[in-house]
Design brief:
Strand content: 25-35%
Shape: globular
Order of helices and strands: EHHHEEEHEHEE
Number of helices: 5
Helix content: 25-40%
CATH class: Alpha Beta
Low-confidence stretches: none
Strand order of the largest sheet: 1-2-3-4-5-7-6
CATH topology: Aminopeptidase
Number of strands: 7
Structural class: alpha+beta
CATH superfamily: Gcn5-related N-acetyltransferase (GNAT)
Mean pLDDT: 95
Length: 169
């Protein structure tokens, strides 16, 4: 998959260890997320997230992505392909820079990304959000995600698993 095709609005690049401080800055600007999904973000937790993989996946499936407006990081997405099956992509994490929120840009990123995933043959996108977080729940519901009925212990919070069918599939 060509990651530059995931957005027409932003330039997209795969993030690496050198980008951890930039990701940390973006995450620290969103304290509400960490109230519902503890613990608070650290450089070490960012680095761990950059390489974390769910079962039955490998490094080739993981895309820890930055969406940039010129040289400024506007959003981060942890995208895992072929999980939990070969027709589904999984979003492990998505966060917009606080000052970019409320402008429709997050929904635009999601829409553009899903268009490309559909072209690549994926039929579903799945993700989880922290139960009780009104901001996360409203954003994902607005973008077509519905609860699957599965919830699990995320270690200090409950994760609500949601899924969306990609249009045209």
């Amino acid at each position: 998959m060509e990651i530059s095709a995931l957005s027409k609005t932003f330039s997209v690049k795969r993030l690496c260890d050198r980008d951890a401080d930039t990701v940390l800055e973006l995450c620290r600007g969103n304290p509400q997320y960490y109230r519902f999904c503890p613990p608070a973000v650290t450089r070490e937790s960012v680095l761990a997230d950059m390489s974390a993989l769910p079962p039955r996946t490998g490094p080739k499936d993981k895309f820890y992505l930055g969406f940039f407006d010129k040289d400024k990081l506007a959003a981060v997405m942890d995208l895992i392909l072929n999980y939990p099956n070969d027709k589904t992509a999984f979003i492990g994490f998505f966060m917009m820079r606080r000052e970019e929120q409320g402008k429709g840009l997050g929904s635009k990123i999601v829409s553009e990304c899903f268009d490309e995933l559909g072209r690549a043959g994926y039929e579903y996108v799945r993700l989880g959000f922290a139960k009780g977080n009104p901001q996360s729940e409203a954003f994902w519901r607005k973008n077509g995600f519905l609860p699957t009925g599965v919830e699990y212990d995320g270690g200090g919070y409950t994760v609500v698993v949601t899924e969306r069918k990609i249009s045209g599939k």
